[in-house]
Amino acid sequence: MDTMYVVTDIVVFKIIHWKLCVLIVQRDTVPYKWERCLPWWFVKSYETVEKAAYRIIKKETWLSQIYLEQLHVFSEIDRDPRWRAIWIWFIGILNINQVIVPWLEQKEALFVDINKLPQLVFNHWEVVALAYQKVIQGIEDWLLITYFLPKYFTLSELQHIYEIILHRRYDKRNFRRMIEKNSHIKITTYKQNNVLHRPASLYTFIK
Amino acid sequence: MDTMYVVTDIVVFKIIHWKLCVLIVQRDTVPYKWERCLPWWFVKSYETVEKAAYRIIKKETWLSQIYLEQLHVFSEIDRDPRWRAIWIWFIGILNINQVIVPWLEQKEALFVDINKLPQLVFNHWEVVALAYQKVIQGIEDWLLITYFLPKYFTLSELQHIYEIILHRRYDKRNFRRMIEKNSHIKITTYKQNNVLHRPASLYTFIK
DNA sequence: TTAATAGTGTCTGTTAGACACTATTGT
DNA sequence: ACAATAGTGTCTAACAGACACTATTAA
Question: Is the CB of B49 less than 8 angstroms away from the CB of A4?
Fold first, then answer.
């Protein structure tokens, strides 16, 4: 009957400029002080691991809205020689309209193309790969994709995000037919405006 | 920076008499002493959560082989008023040939049909439901079903297990065609023996 | 009128599901 | 021979994927 530190770590995904990106921060504690890593912190005794994850995201991005889902628990005894701890990893998803305030994006926290990640401490690169696999699964199985988009979106945007994450192309007509059969995605009467071309109808998710 | 107790809990599944069953034990500590619950215990500082799960299963069943997979972390602060703890839940699967020694099965640990579970402490019933959902997912997505069967098995056994877990029927011919296309399941040259009918060919999983 | 993207229909090959009889073994 | 389960082929409807042109808006 031993007690341990509990740490929450998060792989935050967001599509930026039609690329899948991951939120990277700088460590402000030893070991590896100032090196690049994924957002993390200790879970406090008065909060759940989910609450801790929300708190960490808010500290790093000033955003209080994010989709979170548990990814995996790591509990190797020699991961950090100073403490006995376990690491509860989350996947987080921000939608394309959720912007991070600029000075934060410049100085401390930033999104990096998943294909151009810098060296990360510990096994963080492997965890990103695991998280990406789970996102792919979630998109094939159900509506995880909804969290990458705001409430209203065009079918081209939706198709674009499918293509980026699943790394394949869709034929526009076949894609639209697929969506028509999906009972969770419905057309609205709204349209895009201020675009330099025929405005697209906006769609929405119904859960 | 607080420390907590870490508990591992396991939902162990096994097909017995062609029914999906869950391993139930008796609590030997307060609160709820002697009531039915799922296998659990504290994670010690010198082991991972997985090692703890194996240890718990060995204590309850005397079996040292089991398939384990992480299910979910619960960390509500008021779940147990005596300690601040977090609960790491696992799914465990035993194959149809792995028997529990009889006196244990009678006295302390036993498998109960998932449709006839007794009252369980805490939210254990909900966790079983969550675990069952994940098993269904795992069977649809990939080869989780392999863990319900021993190394060699007949297609009728495989079909039977699919039918029990996914709660649907398959046509024998369509099922066999489906399996032929599955590159992870291969026929062997072995056959059943000592059966009162035409002996079936044995198949095996290649991973 | 042009530039830019939205929106639409058909054909074809593959797959999933419905369906019934013959084969092989032990007793 | 009988009891019991193994093992096999065809037809059809639904679906997935390939493919090219017209529609609508702002500038």
Answer: no
